[in-house]
Design a protein that fits this description.
It is a single chain. The protein is α+β, with helices and mostly antiparallel strands and about 350 residues long. The relative contact order is 0.10. The strands form 3 sheets. Strands 5, 6, 7, 8, 9 and 10 form a 6-stranded antiparallel sheet that branches. It has a 4-stranded mixed sheet with strand order 1-2-4-3. Strand 5 and strand 6 form a beta hairpin. It has 3 domains: about 90 residues, Uridine Diphospho-n-acetylenolpyruvylglucosamine Reductase, domain 2, CATH 3.30.43.10; about 120 residues, Uridine Diphospho-n-acetylenolpyruvylglucosamine Reductase, domain 3 (2-Layer Sandwich), CATH 3.30.465.10; about 120 residues, Vanillyl-alcohol Oxidase, Chain A, domain 3. It starts with a helix and ends with a strand. This is cytokinin dehydrogenase. It catalyses: N(6)-dimethylallyladenine + A + H2O = 3-methyl-2-butenal + adenine + AH2. Its cofactor is FAD. It is an enzyme of class 1 (oxidoreductase).
Length: about 350
Amino acid sequence: MIAYLERFVHENDAESNQDDDVSTISNALELKSTIDAAAAVSASKDFGGIYSVEPLAFLKPSSTEDVARLIRAASSSPNLTVAARGNGHSINGQAMADRGIVLDMRSLATGSIHVGSAYADVSGGALWEEVLKRCLEFGLAPRSWTDYLSLTVGGTLSNGGVSGQAFRYGPQTSNVTELEVVNGKGETLICSESENPDLFFGSLGGLGQFGIITRARILLQPAPDMVRWIRLVYTEFEDFTRDAEFLVTRSENDSFDYVEGFVFSNNDNPLTGRPTVPLHPTQEFDPNLLPRCTGSVLYCLELALHYNNTDHPSTVDTVTNSISLYIPVHSCPEIVICTLTW
């Protein structure tokens, strides 16, 4: 098998039929998955667009054992390389394999989310939006998110996973109690703080260099019924950061449940400007409210307060206003308030 793999890696002449090679390597490794040679072009790019490296094949594993078999083969080969690809949102070519094999981790996501009372066991290839949808069926939600929910669990846990809840619960890597990881030798190991702790902490935020995360046990909490959503737009960076720091350092009962900031251009560019900041359908951003001295960049604080259907709107208003009164509003930021249901 290894001899064949070496021929597969080195052979790249006009007489070689890559489709036949792809089929043969799958049989040689006794994989139950499929190898999609046609999709190799799409696996040669990622969200960053910095590099373009075409692999020999794009593997769609059907199980963790398929992943382990391929890694074991690669560990015995001096030339075969393997990379795990979630939803393709890496920015520096981390999910590419130059003339190697890319693993499509999304193929492991089907039926892979099992929700308990305090945690959920999920596939590393599941999207966070899939995890949220499933957990909400039980009135639960993960404690810590990432901004963009169309990312895989294994992908964000390999990086960190930061969003507006991180100031309270830490990044997503701090809200995992157990992992299933295929290490560089092709061994499938369960790891946690007490079992294989070096692998556990190395895999969390390890950019995939210590193994491939195939399953994770993530912490859950009760999901709110409603969310009060607030956005404050600032013209001055100092005011923006001062208010953000003030909010994330307050106690849980005296702050919002979600605090996050971002930057956007002060223009009408649909990709980088004011249109990129979604508002309630009945509201729109009025640039005439901005001071004349406003620069080319604006800053936005996005805040959210969780509450339940049993809470009277006046109570929510009182809580929101009591917290907001402590925020020293500078430069007349435009304040947009709307209520959204989960």
